[in-house]
UniProtKB/TrEMBL annotation:
The keyword Transmembrane helix does not apply. Keywords: Hydrolase. This is HAD superfamily hydrolase (TIGR01509 family). It comes from the Bacteria.
Length: 233
């Protein structure tokens, strides 16, 4: 996709310039939402429990404490939250060490943001140890800042991670475009006051005020993002 991109900081009289792009990780940049579910199924099978497929929509996109806590309660498994968190992170880290596919359009979009020096942050509910592993594939140089789920007092669906990312990049949340794949992440970004591009991965997401829904990152480039800020001002 070829873009004609306004210079960073170029603004209309209303101040509608894009100041930063904040991106979710799992299911948005890397095709790993299915990995998390597979690991959860395997771990609970080892504990003697079978997960119901319908629970997948409950646990997707949320913080580890919420998803793991839900699964413990739903299954009645004899394991603590801390113990389960270790098992899930270990299993996921092993899985991404074998294969880490990017979502369609992710590599091109990151390269374009980097080329035009758009302040960019990775904002994930995953823990720091997982983010650092994924960054070896995504390229840490693409991000001016990364925010992990275990580094903020409240992670998604609360606005804290996106507020922290915007502040860290010196951007106003209303001048940030957030790209997310789950309702939980969308809720966090909207609560922070950001413009949202939703690329649903597991469950549908409906369009709404200050929210644009696309089917793939291949539809998203800098021209698209600059236009989004102008249309939604």
């Amino acid at each position: 996709m070829t873009s004609t991109v306004p210079a960073l900081g170029t603004r209309t009289a209303e101040g509608s310039a894009l100041q930063a792009v904040l991106l979710d990780m799992d299911g948005t940049l890397v095709d790993t939402e299915g990995f998390w579910w597979d690991v959860e199924v395997e771990v609970f099978a080892s504990l003697g429990h079978r997960l119901d497929e319908s629970w997948r929509h409950v646990v997707v996109g949320g913080p580890m404490t919420r998803s793991a806590g839900f699964l413990i309660e739903a299954t009645g498994a004899d394991i603590t939250l801390d113990e389960l968190t270790v098992l899930l992170n270990d299993g996921f880290e092993d899985r991404i060490g074998r294969d880490l596919p990017l979502m369609p359009g992710a590599g091109r979009l990151l390269a374009e943001l980097y080329e035009y020096e758009i302040p960019t942050a990775l904002v994930s509910a995953s823990h720091r140890r997982i983010i650092d592993r994924v960054l070896t594939s995504l390229g840490a140089h693409h991000f001016g800042l990364t925010v992990a789920g275990d580094e903020v007092p409240r992670t998604k669906p609360h606005p804290d991670p996106y507020l922290a990312a915007a502040a860290g990049l010196g951007a106003h949340p209303a001048r940030c475009a957030v790209i997310e794949d789950t309702a939980t992440g969308v809720a966090a970004a909207e609560a922070a006051g950001c413009h949202v591009v939703a690329v649903p991965s597991v469950a549908p997401i409906a369009p709404a005020l200050r929210r644009t829904v696309v089917t793939s990152l291949e539809e998203v480039d800098l021209t698209f993002l600059h236009g989004l800020m102008t249309e939604m001002r």
